[in-house]
């Protein structure tokens, strides 16, 4: 009986030792598992930060490419504008030459010149320049801050009675048909007969 109890005691003690050893082993494994888990969490955090950095870099690259494309487009537009400005200047010069040629070839007869000269005006440009004193005759208001004025150099003296006056404000322009009179004191009076803006419908 005593031997049996002793054997049971020894067996129980052995089982307890085995359990203790297993607990130690499992504890170490659990600790290692926890450490590995912490390291995994840190690795995941670092990976997330790395992904965010990559996405930010990709966004910056995309933005840089978009900015580059916009700059290329802007350069093209600037070049087109400069080309249009040069072309516009060329057309203005050609237009001025055509107007000059047209004025030079208008049939301004000797009788009209003599009538004007008899009233004391030897230079017919004096009549056109007097238009500058009568901008109030222009029946249109300026736009975008512009002021409507007659342009003597663009206007045409038709005869001793009529002038085809050109006016503009820097944005819109047109012509007016005017009747003028020269009194004995060489003062010129004006009357607007009709006017129109370019692009205006009847």
Structural write-up:
The chain crosses the membrane at residues 6-25. Keywords: Coiled coil, Membrane, Transmembrane, Transmembrane helix. With 202 residues, this protein is of the alpha+beta class. It has three helices and five strands; from the N terminus they run αααβββββ. It folds into two domains: 1-105; 108-197. Strands 1, 2, 3, 4 and 5 form a five-stranded antiparallel β-sheet that branches. 9% of the residues are buried. The mean pLDDT is 76.
Into how many domains do the coordinates divide? 2
What assembly state would you assign to the polypeptide chains in this entry?
single chain
Q: Would you count the extended β strands for me?
A: 5
Low-confidence stretches: none
Detail the topology: elements first, then pairings.
Blueprint: H1 2-105, H2 110-118, H3 125-129, E1 149-150, E2 156-157, E3 162-168, E4 173-182, E5 188-197
Antiparallel strand pairs: 1-3, 2-3, 3-4, 4-5
Coiled coil: 33-101
Keywords: Coiled coil, Membrane, Transmembrane, Transmembrane helix
Transmembrane segments: 6-25
Give a nutshell description of this structure:
This protein is 58% helix and 15% strand. By secondary structure, the protein is α+β, with helices and mostly antiparallel strands. The longest helix is centred in the first third of the chain and has 104 residues, at 2-105.
